[in-house]
Specification:
- By secondary structure, the protein is α+β, with helices and mostly antiparallel strands.
- The protein has one domain: Hotdog Thioesterase (Thiol Ester Dehydrase, Chain A, Roll), CATH 3.10.129.
- The protein has seven helices and 13 strands.
- β12 and β13 form a beta hairpin.
Length: 302
């Protein structure tokens, strides 16, 4: 089955998708009883233009490219791996670009009309690698002097628990919409999404329960997705199907403005032991959004 009729252009060893204007559907998102980076007022207080389109929304624009490169295999064992470079806002146009693959891995980028790079990464198939985030993790240094993440440690796990995504199911405070709502605004529509969960919505499936029971992260503070990889192992994941997931902290990193927690989430059939899919997500918390950050850092480290 061919999912898409998206017009793609092949030129100079690249596949280029059309310009699209993805929608921010998280204006009403809340967590820890406060608004998120996708709310205009909250984002503007932190020096940003406005509420950002959620990063994995862009994965939908790469799905037709993955299908063009690998056909039906993309829906069974495709992987999108990306480092988010800048934000896209409502009204911004962006396009997806992939190079021809080498040994099952294709370099990708997304750009705005002015040439600004939105993300860079890889598409791959069947476990080929290294992926963009495999390479990135190998270059990062562990977080030094954690404050917001001081009670979090590599190897921490959340117990396996059930998740599902029905077509009309409201996905909660973190994702205040349903799959049916998303499909009305998705950049690359497909009749196949009546049965198959879009890759960007796999992020929702794996994250909507992430605040229960939660990690011991200090707050309230505002975070964003900085890096994300979604890998299908035995796909596709299906609408209305019951799954189980478990999460593990695999790395802690940081920058001048952020403290980052890297979590791997694995998807199983209920009671199963063979993974169906995985997601690696770097949630970066903005230190300036945590009010007592400076005082607590001084107390902890002098």
């Amino acid at each position: 089955m061919q999912f898409f009729t998206t017009p793609l252009e092949r030129k100079e060893g690249r596949i280029v998708g059309p310009w699209r204007k993805p929608a921010n559907m998280l204006q009403a998102q809340t967590y820890d009883n406060h608004a998120s980076m996708h709310d205009d007022a909250t984002a503007q207080k932190l020096g940003f233009k406005g509420g950002a389109v959620e990063g994995p929304t862009h994965f939908s624009q790469f799905a037709p490219l993955g299908e063009a490169l690998w056909g039906e295999r993309w829906w069974k064992e495709g992987c999108a791996s990306a480092h988010y470079r800048t934000m896209v806002f409502d009204g911004d146009a962006a396009r997806a670009i992939a190079e021809e693959p080498v040994d099952g891995v294709a370099k990708i980028t997304m750009e705005k009309e002015d040439g600004t790079e939105v993300l860079r990464g890889t598409l791959s198939i069947g476990g080929a690698g290294p992926t963009a985030l495999t390479s990135r993790l190998s270059e990062l240094k562990p977080l030094d002097q954690p404050v917001i993440l001081r009670d979090v440690s590599v190897g921490m796990k959340q117990p396996r628990h059930p998740v599902r995504m029905g077509a009309e199911q409201h996905m909660g405070d973190l994702y205040p919409f349903s799959l049916a709502d998303k499909l009305k605004k998705i950049t690359e529509p497909s009749a196949g999404y009546a049965e198959v969960i879009p890759m960007e919505m796999i992020s929702v499936l794996l994250q909507y329960s992430s605040r229960r029971p939660g990690w011991p992260v200090k707050g309230p503070a505002v975070g964003l997705f900085a890096d994300q990889e979604i890998r299908l192992i035995d796909g596709p994941l299906l609408v209305g199907r019951d799954y189980e997931i478990e999460r593990e902290v695999v790395f802690l990193s940081g920058s001048r403005r952020t403290e980052s927690m890297w979590v791997r989430t694995t998807v199983f059939e209920p009671g199963g032991s063979t993974p169906k899919a995985e997601m690696l997500l770097n949630s970066a918390t903005l230190v300036e959004s945590y009010a007592p950050y400076a005082d607590e850092k001084a107390k902890l480290y002098g």
